[in-house]
Amino acid sequence: MNDSPPKKKTKQRSYSVREKLDAVRRMQEVRMEVVATG
User: Where do the structural domains in the chain lie, given as residue ranges?
Assistant: First the structure.
């Protein structure tokens, strides 16, 4: 994970989209775990 500032807007956009997808995946996994345990 590089904290260096993005030089290209496209790179930043793709990174943000990837981050959002990862966040959604984590949310779904957490929900599944909660449903399975609860």
Answer: 11-38
